[in-house]
Amino acid sequence: MRTEGYSGPDLRHHGDAEVRDDGAALIDLAVNVRTGTPPLWLREEIAASLSSLAAYPDGRAARAAVAARHGVPVERVLLTAGAAEAFVLLARALKVRRPVVIHPQFTEPEAALRDAGHTVDRVVLRQQDGFRLDPGLVPKDADLVVVGNPTNPTSVLHPASELLRLARPGRTLVVDEAFMDAVPGERESLAGRCDVPGLVVLRSLTKTWGLAGLRIGYVLAEPEVITRLERAQPLWAVSTPALAAARACITPQALTEAEAAARQIAVDREFLVKGLTERNAEVTGPAEAPFVLARIPGAPEVRPRLRALGYAVRRGDTFPGLGPEWIRVAVRDADTTTGFLTALDTAMS
Questions:
Q1: Which residue from 139, 145, 87, 142 is spatially nearest to 116, judged by alpha carbons?
Q2: CA dist 116 to 90, 97, 119, 122, 335, Å?
Q3: Rounded CA gap, 208 and 204, in Å?
Q4: Of 220, 2, 3, 225, residue with least CA distance to 95
Q5: What are the backbone angles phi and psi of residue 343, rounded to the nearest 5°?
């Protein structure tokens, strides 16, 4: 964490750190990118775009496709190099006095705000409440509120009605929906709403489609906010291959495939949750994302033992509001999960 004077959890530790260098050969349950991706048809679309690399990227077609996908005017769309860039743009472009981040959640929004010189307040949701959102905990004078839905790492899907209680005049409400396409039916999404003042919705295409190395996402917001973000964004920030991927991933056929994947994730997640619960883990639920958060007895000792047995999981203590006994586990197919649970038995014994 680069911010001077900051002494809390490492906000810049992410799941990929678990599988770098000596972890490259591990079975990866730390990163939330769907396995077996990108699919062949998507790789072919991206490869076909390489013949155009001599020209500067033109995002107009992809931007229009995103707007059509969500039924919003194109002026409400900004393409970004993943959701992470969007957090940096928001932190730099918006003039806010009291930003609040609701934790536990993805830590990059707070890191970006701090790096931009903001003093950040936290609202930390409680385990005994299932890490569920309580809008009443957010200070009334907060003029920027950031919340994930479904939330990383808790896997909690907050009702849209509760999120909307956070919206009010003079406030920017940022809802990170990076994992919403892994929720069957994308229920509780606010992506198509144009009637909520100050609403900013962030979406990512990197998780479901395996494009973390390509970096592609987008912002949905009021045109005035999009203009401010666009002015803070470097020219040609989204590459030609990423633009091709964006267009390909929001076709009707791709959306049908994503929905099928979301339904399979729900089945595989139930299997994982059952296995963890049988091993006396406290699993946050009901889990709705392609990962689960679990409190494991002796987790600080269990994690290195799991690594020795060939499995990487995400440590939980770098998320504000969680401690070293927490781990986040990505949802995988039943065979992979069975192998992990067998290793967990050994690591916990």
A1: 87
A2: 10, 12, 9, 17, 44
A3: 9
A4: 225
A5: -65, -35
Quick one: how many helices (H) and strands (E) in the chain? 11, 12
Domains of the chain: residue spans and CATH: 15-37+254-348 (3.90.1150.10), 40-252 (3.40.640.10)
- Cis peptide bond upstream of 153, omega within 30: yes
Q: In this structure, what DSSP letter does residue 46 have?
A: H
Order the strands of the 291-295 sheet from edge to edge.
27-29, 311-315, 326-330, 291-295, 282-283
Pairing outcome for strands 326-330 and 291-295: antiparallel
* pLDDT score, position 3: 56
pLDDT tens-digit profile of 14-32? 999 999 998 889 999 999 9
Q: Return the bridge partners of 121, or none.
A: 100
pLDDT of residue 285: 87
Residue 95 corresponds to which amino acid?
Answer: K
Phi, psi of 133 (to 5 degrees): -70, 135
> Where does residue 193 rank: exposed (0-12), middle (13-18), buried (19+ CB within 10 A)?
middle
